[in-house]
């Protein structure tokens, strides 16, 4: 309930924050604070401290606890959600979980926004950063790597190459320095705080996942950086994390890593990424040949493993059954491979299609039985491995166990990694073995040929085509309260696209907060020489002709392409003097390109960035760093994406128009993001040139144009 006292507290904290920071209140920011306070303030708790489902005009309200706010750059939205969410979460006795899509925003919230709010608002709260287990060192693994190297005996590594890649002398130096830093309290064991960037292959040797970690039974648990970080979550009011960790927690049922959804107020910043991230989390894939080889390898190393852990609880009983289970899975995979290979070869692979997709997600009847058998095989394998892990885990507590604890601790992660791989295969084949029901949204199922160390392999993939249902039952229905925000949640001027993909209820509180920017300070221009981007060659030639006239060689320009080929073709044909000031995506990391670009502008030179989709979002080039954004083409999705293709197919099958329902809204949203690169502060000015005449010649183009911010239009006929 949003009582007068709570209202006063929020208003008072906001005024104090502005005063202490010497800032003026912003209309959009105030509006956003009010909407979030109103939504979270409407949450009522029952006797068990759970959110009550309340009556609305049309029956039970399913979205009264959810606030979806689009707030553009310059709104000051971080403070606008932190402030009311902290107050309301504390009033409800719930944890606040603030989740972002990118590390950059996470760091900004933890290192700048929350400390500033804490210092200047008079609010009392505590916060911490929560990262996935994979960002923390596993002390047991570090111990083992160093001990095995120093003793010159590498029995475990030699046997299980897949799970334990070999370590170089250079690597050991690094690991030794990590151990020293930990011992001297100079490092917490968190990957991101190690002074140098760490390569993934260096890091993966010394980190772990939940299947390989022995948890509270581990000899190192009291010094374990992951458990220390996790324990600190229990005592704070606000946890800052990322969408992946929230989704990983929900995939485990919620409350396994983070607080339970029922006890949490979530804020999803960069919320437009959530549906796609959720799709990734609930997708399955596995390579057939490499899995077959791995099963073989497991079987070969099993004897040696059992020789070490024999006698630990009932491990031998299950271990004896493993060879048959491993061989069964391998044989069934090897039998199915040529059939799938033939399917994959039945289509001509070109630039536009790099996979074989099962139409409507339907696996043909004659392939269902082998898929069911594979599912059963991996299910059996996974069960045996789980039982062996449980036996080892139990044995660690057993003072009479004949197997030394060090051997149990060494082999537990190996069996855990095996189980994780068996589970992944089980889930994939379950998806292939279970046809979708007529009333459900079908899954996308497809095969992708891949080059695996010079040999052909087939990746078998399955993914939901919409995350809506999954998010609905795992998140929206369970959470105590939710705020979703981003600069781009609407497409074509409404929230339908987001709702379809994220599954947020119709009766949630949807709001667009007015931008503080005067968009008339920027022009959107369709130059006279612009053609329709329907014929790629003609369009590319037109851009090559026109671009040198459009670019000011003394200013900061961002040119955004939708196709790498077009970007490279255009670059090749640019005049020499222009090529010298162009920074081309792919030549350097994005970060490095941005640093170079800014330096040139700071030095009074001109600079031009040529980039693809990743430059259309999240790139912040205020003021003179970017006064001209050139967009080569309306950003329609690549036709090759199997999930998008399956979604379009499903919409068409239901009598819908996939182009108008999916393709056009997606392009609208991406174009808004691309245009958003120009004005980054209230004083910025500049120009956007769109080199695709379809925006004025096609009916859908006009709809896209009308949904852009109200720039001054200059349209040359
Ligand atoms: S508790 Fe788990 S993550 Fe921590 S050191 Fe032990 S095995 Fe590694």
TrEMBL record:
It comes from Cellvibrio fibrivorans. Keywords: 4Fe-4S, ATP-binding, DNA-binding, Helicase, Hydrolase, Iron, Iron-sulfur, Isomerase, Metal-binding, Nucleotide-binding. InterPro entries: ATP-dep_Helicase_C, DEAD/DEAH_box_helicase_dom, DinG/Rad3-like, DinG_proteobact, Helic_SF1/SF2_ATP-bd_DinG/Rad3, P-loop_NTPase. Its cofactor is [4Fe-4S] cluster. Binds 1 [4Fe-4S] cluster. HAMAP family: DinG_proteobact. It catalyses: ATP + H2O = ADP + phosphate + H(+). Signal peptide: none annotated. [4Fe-4S] cluster binds at residues 138, 213, 218, 224. DNA-dependent ATPase and 5'-3' DNA helicase. Unwinds D-loops, R-loops, forked DNA and G-quadruplex DNA. One of its GO terms (molecular function) is DNA helicase activity. This is ATP-dependent DNA helicase DinG.
